[in-house]
Amino acid sequence: MANALLTLRQALPGLSAAESRVARAVINDPALVVDRTITELATICDTSAGTVARFCQKLGFSGFREFRVEVAAAASREQSERDRFEVADGEITRTDSAEDVVAKIAYQEVLAIEETAKSLDLVTLDRVVAVIAGASRIDIYGLGSSGLTAQDLQQKLYRIGLGATYFADPHLALASAALQRPGGVAIGISHSGQTSETGRALEVARLAGATTVGVTNFPDSPLAAHCDFLLTTQARENRFRSGAMSSRIAQLALVDFLFVRIAQSMSDDAAEALRRTYEAVQG
Fold first, then answer.
1. Which end of the chain is less enclosed by CB atoms within 10 A, N or C?
2. Domain presence at residue 141
3. Average of pLDDT values for 126-136?
4. In the chain, what is the straight-line distance between the N-terminal and C-terminal CA atoms, in Å?
């Protein structure tokens, strides 16, 4: 079983109102599960014990007992990480000093990269590598902060000779998606998985015959419905540090994983392309 608290965070977009209350309560205070019975937790979350039991099974646990054990283990690991960075709480508050802010951001960013790496489906990663390396054309879509990640991926692929194009304009993205064909690849990046323009571009590209790849923090989000392959990040948000920061570091790490595997698959061709493009801009 993966980190139970990560599983809860990723499942949020697909949960019912009652299930969401349980998930958010446990995320905010894991001790609610560790120290209480299923009936007590249900009462706190204004729902029934049956709903909590079904909620645990929906997330892949055998029942409340296994869920409680895994939440306790995940909470213990997170406490160890906070101890490593000497932060009492990962959340940034208005009264934190500069020293506190720097320590907490370092903790959160390292955690985002580590959790993304640990939870990444490596089989899917290499399948995505194969389709990108062999693609006749590559479209990349992303808006806002995810657009920065999309630009980074496009620049990396272009430097090793792969004809990747990034579309910041949703209309141009749709136009290009409509002209995709079998053998092409369309990559959509959205932290929430709810960016309608990115999802629509992937949908159109898929209908045109392209293989579609999604990069998101939430595997049950609407974006996933339009993807042949899904790569997921692990980023968290808080009041002063929104997803535009935490998602970006996790996405950029994932792009680096993807790019290096593609470069490895191209062997000497990628190394030569990187050398030539590096020399071209010197001086």
1. C
2. yes
3. 96
4. 52
